[in-house]
TrEMBL record:
It is found in: Cell membrane. It comes from the Eukaryota. It comes from Dipodomys ordii. GO terms for molecular function: G protein-coupled receptor activity; olfactory receptor activity. The chain crosses the membrane at residues 12-34, 126-144, 183-207, 228-246, 258-278. InterPro entries: GPCR_Rhodpsn, GPCR_Rhodpsn_7TM, Olfact_rcpt, Olfactory_GPCR. The gene is LOC105985084. One of its GO terms (cellular component) is plasma membrane. This is Olfactory receptor. The lineage of its organism: Eukaryota, Metazoa, Chordata, Craniata, Vertebrata.
Length: 302
C-alpha cells in the first residue's frame, strides 16, 4: 500500500527515498573503497566496518528501490515470489547486521579493555571466522522465516499495509490457527537478538567502566568518540526493530506504524557512513591520501 494513496504524496515519497538511497549507496561504497585500498585501514575494526558497509549497501537495496519504483509508477503490486525473496533477503541481512554489530562491540571491548592482547585475540583468522558465522546465521534466519511463513495458506485480503513485505504484516494475512510455526521461528530469532543485545550491553558496561578510569580527559574523550557512533547505530536499529516486531499489528495502521520501519530499514544504512566517516579522523585521512594519489596519477599522465 505504500505511505499514501495520493499521487502527489507518492511522488514526494519516491523523490525522498531516491535521495536517501543515493546517499546511502555513495557513503557505503566510499567506506568499502577506502577500507579496501588504504593500507592504514587494514585492521580488524575497519574489516568489520567494510563488512557492515557492504551489508548496508545490500540491506537498503532490498526494500527501497522497489518502493521508489512503486511511487513513481503508482503501481504497488508485488508478486508472491518477489515478496518471498524480499522477506528472505531482508531477514537475512537484518539478522546478519545484528550479528556484525555484536562482533563490533566485542572488538571495541578487546581494544579498550584488553589492548595488550588485542592483536592476539583479534587475529585475521578469528575475524574471518566471526564474519563467516555472522553471515551464515543471517542466511539461516532468512531461510527459516520464508519456509515457515510462505508454506502456510494466506486468506482474506492480500493487501499489505506497508512499503515492503515484512513478517508482522504478512502474519496478519494468515489464519491465526496455522501461524504457530512462524511464531516459533520469531521466538527463536528474538531470543538470539536478545542474546546479542545482552552481549553488546555487557561489552559497553566494561568499556565505559574502563574509559572512566582513564586519568586524561583527552584520552577519555578520544576513546568515547570511537564507541558512541557504534552505540548510536545499535540502539537505533535494535530498539526500532524490536518495537515494530513486538507491538500488535493494527487492521488499519497509522502513519506512525508505517514510519517506524523506516528507522530500522532506511536510517541505519544511511547513517552508518556519516557517523563512521565524517567523525573518524582515520577515514578522513585515508580519503585525503586517495585523492592525493589520484591527483598524482593524473598529473603524471598530463
Amino acid at each position: 500500500m505504500g505511505f499514501s494513496d495520493s499521487l502527489q504524496d507518492q511522488i514526494i515519497h519516491g523523490i525522498l527515498f531516491l535521495l536517501v538511497y543515493l546517499a546511502a549507496l555513495t557513503g557505503n561504497l566510499l567506506i568499502i573503497v577506502l577500507t579496501t585500498l588504504d593500507v592504514h585501514l587494514q585492521t580488524p575494526m575497519y574489516f568489520f566496518l567494510r563488512n557492515l558497509s557492504f551489508l548496508d549497501f545490500c540491506y537498503i537495496s532490498v526494500t527501497v528501490p522497489k518502493s521508489i519504483v512503486n511511487s513513481f509508477t503508482h503501481n504497488t503490486f508485488i508478486s508472491f515470489f518477489e515478496c518471498a525473496l524480499q522477506v528472505f533477503f531482508f531477514m537475512d541481512l537484518a539478522s546478519t547486521e545484528t550479528a556484525i554489530l555484536t562482533v563490533m562491540s566485542y572488538d571495541r571491548y578487546v581494544a579498550i579493555c584488553r589492548p595488550l592482547h588485542y592483536e592476539v585475540i583479534m587475529n585475521q583468522g578469528a575475524c574471518v571466522k566471526m564474519m563467516t558465522i555472522s553471515w551464515l546465521s543471517g542466511a539461516i534466519s532468512g531461510f527459516l522465516h520464508v519456509t515457515s511463513t510462505f508454506s502456510l495458506p494466506f486468506c482474506g485480503s492480500y493487501t499489505i499495509h506497508h512499503f515492503f513485505c515484512d513478517i508482522p504484516q504478512l502474519l496478519s494475512l494468515l489464519d491465526s490457527k496455522v501461524i504457530i510455526s512462524e511464531i516459533r521461528v520469531m521466538v527463536f530469532i528474538t531470543s538470539l537478538v536478545i542474546i546479542c543485545f545482552v552481549s553488546i550491553t555487557v561489552s559497553y558496561v566494561y568499556i565505559f567502566s574502563t574509559i572512566l578510569r582513564i586519568p586524561s580527559k583527552v584520552g577519555r574523550s578520544k576513546t568515547f568518540s570511537t564507541c558512541i557512533p557504534h552505540l548510536v547505530v545499535v540502539t537505533l536499529f535494535l530498539v526500532s526493530g524490536s518495537i515494530a516486531y513486538v507491538k500488535p499489528i493494527s487492521d488499519s495502521p497509522s502513519f506512525s506504524d508505517l514510519l517506524l520501519p523506516v528507522f530500522y530499514t532506511v536510517v541505519p544504512p544511511t547513517l552508518n557512513p556519516i557517523i563512521y566517516s565524517l567523525r573518524n579522523k582515520d577515514m578522513k585521512a585515508a580519503l585525503r591520501r586517495q585523492l592525493a594519489k589520484g591527483n598524482w596519477v593524473r598529473d603524471s599522465y598530463s
